[in-house]
Automatic annotation (TrEMBL):
Pfam families (UniProt xref): CMD
Entry superkingdom: Bacteria
GO MF annotation list: peroxidase activity
Natural source organism: Bradyrhizobium brasilense
Protein name: Peroxidase-related enzyme
Positions of transmembrane segments: none
Carboxymuconolactone decarboxylase-like domain: residues covered: 45-108
Taxonomic lineage: Bacteria, Pseudomonadati, Pseudomonadota, Alphaproteobacteria, Hyphomicrobiales
InterPro entries assigned to the protein according to its UniProt record, in alphabetical order: AhpD-like (IPR029032), AhpD_core (IPR004675), CMD-like (IPR003779), Uncharacterised_peroxidase-rel (IPR010195)
NCBIfam families per record: ahpD_dom (TIGR00778), peroxid_rel (TIGR01926)
UniProt cross-references to SUPFAM superfamilies, sorted A to Z: AhpD-like (SSF69118)
Keyword terms, alphabetized: Oxidoreductase, Peroxidase
The keyword 4Fe-4S appears for this protein: no
């Protein structure tokens, strides 16, 4: 159950409306999380800018897989439903790859290295070791790519924390709890 009532369109500040309308056009509907987040134009527009910039980082399968791994660690059910949906429909990941990503792995060795590194970043709060850096670099990631992985972890954590705090009503298909995968 949502912790807060979903804002009405009239309650969304004018400074958030252009960004929110853009998401609605691109997605085809307005996710509850975005409507709620839009109550703060500063936070919402900053997040949207970060999301837009990071949509150019790495490839869509790796980005969505990092979203799944981070959301699993942070226990964000809302984001797990969103990333499972986008991983299947946009990144075209098969169900077994979505499950692997939630566990911080992938069948592709390079993507697996990125996911293991992302999971290490979130579980250690960024205090990764030299061996972690070597492993992700040895998989073919540049230092710029490693910075992008860290930025993606931070961005996904932001939405995880937001959704865990405000608990918007689910509007994407439910996913199985981690214990049953």
């Amino acid at each position: 159950m949502a912790r807060n009532a979903l804002p009405t369109p009239a309650q969304v500040p004018a400074a958030s409306k252009p960004t929110l309308d853009g998401f609605t056009r691109n997605i085809g509907f307005t996710p509850n999380m975005m409507t709620t987040f839009a109550l703060s134009p500063i936070a919402f527009n900053a997040w949207a800018t970060l999301l837009s910039s990071l949509s150019k980082a790495l490839d869509v399968k790796t980005r969505d897989s990092i979203g799944l791994a981070v959301s699993e660690v942070n226990g964000c059910n809302y984001c797990l439903t969103v990333h499972s949906f986008t991983a299947e429909h946009m990144a075209k990941l098969p169900a077994n790859e979505i499950i692997l990503a939630r566990k911080g792995h992938a069948s592709d060795p390079k993507r697996d290295a990125a996911l293991q590194f992302a999971r290490k970043v979130i579980t250690t709060r960024g205090k990764v070791g030299d061996a972690d850096m070597k492993a992700v670099r040895d998989a073919g990631y540049t230092d710029a790519n490693v910075m992008e992985i860290v930025a993606l972890v931070a961005m996904y954590s932001l939405t995880n924390f937001f959704n865990n705090a405000f608990d918007p009503e689910q509007d994407f298909p439910a996913v199985a709890p981690a214990g049953s995968i």
